[in-house]
Structures are given as structure tokens and as C-alpha cells.
Design brief:
CATH class: Alpha Beta
Low-confidence stretches: none
Number of strands: 5
Distance between the termini: 27 Å
CATH topology: YaeB-like fold
Number of helices: 2
InterPro entries: RelE/ParE_toxin, RelE/ParE_toxin_dom_sf
Strand content: 25-35%
Shape: globular
CATH architecture: 2-Layer Sandwich
Strand order of the largest sheet: 1-5-4-3-2
Protein name: Plasmid stabilization system protein ParE
Pfam family, one: ParE_toxin
Keywords: Toxin-antitoxin system
Order of helices and strands: EHHEEEE
Mean pLDDT: 90
Oligomer: single chain
Structural class: alpha+beta
Largest sheet: 5 strands, mixed
Radius of gyration: 13 Å
Helix content: 25-40%
């Protein structure tokens, strides 16, 4: 099973989203954290599950539904290294990475 690595850029996006949600609804932030953790663990079980990223098909996007919208993670699977690199993370309503 591939190792999942969260890059600094993705960690920054995760922190930004967590802080925003915590300020609005702390319990929802806890639930969101649990949902995100489960999705990242699934990358280890099925690393090519996300859709190819239109601008750079070697990358993949994973839509993570939560509440009435959700989040999007941009990642790359390196078969030789057997690692999944989460490169960026944002709320679905944010533009771009």
C-alpha cells in the first residue's frame, strides 16, 4: 500500500480550510477532519481513483464531499516509489490551487 505524503503546500491549504471552518462551526471542523483523513487513507488503497487533472494529466484531483460542497485535493501517484504526494488542497468554492 502506497505511503501518503502531504506536501507543505497542501498542509497550508488544509490548515487554512480547517481554521476557517473552526471559526464558523468547531464541531463541523472535527467531522471534516475525520472525513479528510479517511479519504487520504483511501489514496493508499486506490491511488489512481481521482480524476486526471485537465491541465496536467500526470496529476489527479480528488473531490471530497462534505456538507453542501466539499474540498478538492491535487495529488500525484509515483508507482516506482509507491507513494502518493498530496500537492495542494482547497475548498471547492475557491478558485485554482
Amino acid at each position: 500500500m502506497p505511503q501518503v505524503i502531504i506536501t507543505q503546500r497542501a498542509a497550508t491549504g488544509l490548515t487554512r480550510c480547517r481554521e476557517f471552518l473552526t471559526s464558523k462551526n468547531p464541531l463541523a471542523a472535527i467531522r471534516a477532519g475525520q472525513v479528510l483523513e479517511a479519504h487520504f487513507e483511501q489514496r493508499g488503497n486506490n491511488p489512481e481513483m481521482g480524476r486526471p487533472f485537465t491541465e496536467l494529466p500526470v496529476l489527479r484531483e480528488l473531490k471530497i464531499e462534505f456538507g453542501d460542497s466539499g474540498y478538492v485535493a491535487l495529488y500525484r501517484y509515483e508507482k516506482i516509489e509507491d507513494r502518493v504526494y498530496v500537492l495542494a488542497f482547497r475548498h471547492q468554492k475557491e478558485a485554482g490551487y
